Amino acid sequence: MAIFLDQVGYLPDSKKQAVMTGSNSCRLLSESGESTGVDPIISYNGYDEASGDTTWRVDFSKLTLPGTYYLEDVEGNRSPAVHIRPDCYRDMFRDLSRMFYFQRCGCALEAPYAGKFTHKACHCAEVRDYLAPERRFFLNKGWHDAGDYGRYVTPGAVTLGHLLYAYELFPAAFADDLQFPESGGGIPDILSECRYELDWMLGMQLPDGGVAHKLTSQYHAPFVMPEDDSLPFFRYPVSSLATADFAAATALAYRIYLPFDKAYAERLLDAAELAWSWLTAHPALVFEDPKDCHTGGYGDTCDADERLWACAELYRARKAPQYLTALPTLLPRCKELTALGWGDVAGFAGFSVLFADAGVFPETVVEPFRSAFLEKADELLAVTERSGYRMSLKPDEFVWGSNLSVMSNACVLIAAALLTNDRSYADAAEEQLHYLLGRNPLGVSYVTGHGSNPFRNPHNRPTFADGIDEPIPGYVSGGPNGRPSDEKACALIPEGTPPMKCYADVYESYSTNEIAIYWNSVTVLAAAYFIGSR
């Protein structure tokens, strides 16, 4: 028998379900082994295609008293600990938010803030313009994008989108000190952290308003500490994708920073409008890696969704008619109005439109987003209800970075809950967190340092090279990938393995176990709802 549950915890008033395989009977006991007086409700859920398991649901929602418990079968086999606490997510949430500090480029991470995970300042040398290598300049700050040392505008903007909307919607979730150099500076710590990325992005804008796509070396560094990466860095050419994402993120940041630093906010908005001027003068200019570049491409074939997000945020900031006029022309060109990943950002435009003050956007703009979010949320409710593990991905949706998809779905469900006050959407959103934190067929918490069995070996250069046994806490793994593409995962995962089990906790497995700033940020957005609004 195996029992899978959220290893971090359950809120006292939330639905509480575990998943059981191989048996249909268990009891709920206190930490000391005494009966709780609550009989779990066990129901047969049948065969689950994504995991290959036959599953039973174990519902113990009637247990609301904070404490530590466990489930035990008739043979005495125990589950991982069940923690019920009103603050069960807070420590994890703090580490999820602190992750970005550990991704900082261009500065030393010092012991008072980084603990034992220190390193020297990195990537401080001059960088080169790819099209004119004789041009050299300094371009510091920003976050390392993932397990490598590149910095990219599109994923940076998406990460800022998740974090800034999380702060705007759920500010109470960000009350804790994140313990880094800017703490106590009169601005919420998460906004100080976001500014570190925004400052770098401002440096990626050219005088005409266009924004360079990325800043990387031509090859990924070997598995060395960041300060030991001596490969030359290049600023690669402008793309309309990066420029539109930049315009959206800086216009959004204008609204958020205005109460704290008016001069900085106005600088951000000026940059956003300059980027939009460039966009109006240039058709779609997508990005393809040059043949001699082998770092992340973050390419896309359509920039309508990026322009849509930029229009929405620029209109909220300036109320200028040209932005509102552009929105209806862009809407029909966007395939998925709820998407919250780097490849499609139309869902961010949805967050901007749907949660603006009443009357800011006309109903002709609001209604398509409202309908799309509610329709998608209903679809996710149905998939979650059918799933043996109470999660929202269909078998063919376990792709590279599947945990981004899971947590993006949680955010769509949260949006539906905010729009309707329907508790069923919020409950389904929390089910996605439970999957991430251990209620999955591998019994793995996909957040380092949290849960009884967290993953330990992310595809992340500092984690491998720092000589410290455990990883930095608070990193989210990419998660199961039904079509793994790295050599190590292909060797370790037998052919025919169900997609929800196609995962390898080894540092070499970039296609199942890499980390990325936008996998953390979308999880911050989802978790913030359960800390800052309930």
Q: Which range does the strand content fall in?
A: 5-15%
As residue ranges, the low-confidence spans are: none
- Give the ordered list of helices and strands: EEEEEEEHHEEEHHEEHHHHHHHHHHHH
Q: Quick one: overall form? A: globular
| Percentage of residues in helical conformation | 25-40%
- Number of strand elements: 12
The value of Rg in angstroms is 23 Å
Give the number of helices: 16
Lateral strand order in the biggest sheet: 9-8-12-11-10
* N-end to C-end Cα span: 35 Å
Major sheet description: 5 strands, mixed
Task: Output mean pLDDT.
Answer: 96
- Please state the structural category: alpha+beta
Task: Give a quick summary of the entry.
Helix content is 39%, strand content 9%. The chain contains 16 helices and 12 strands.
Describe the overall structure.
The chain is an alpha+beta fold. Helix content is 39%, strand content 9%. The protein has a 5-stranded mixed β-sheet with strand order 9-8-12-11-10. Strands 1-2-5-4 form a 4-stranded antiparallel β-sheet, with no helix packed on it. Strands 3-6-7 form a 3-stranded antiparallel β-sheet, with no helix packed on it.
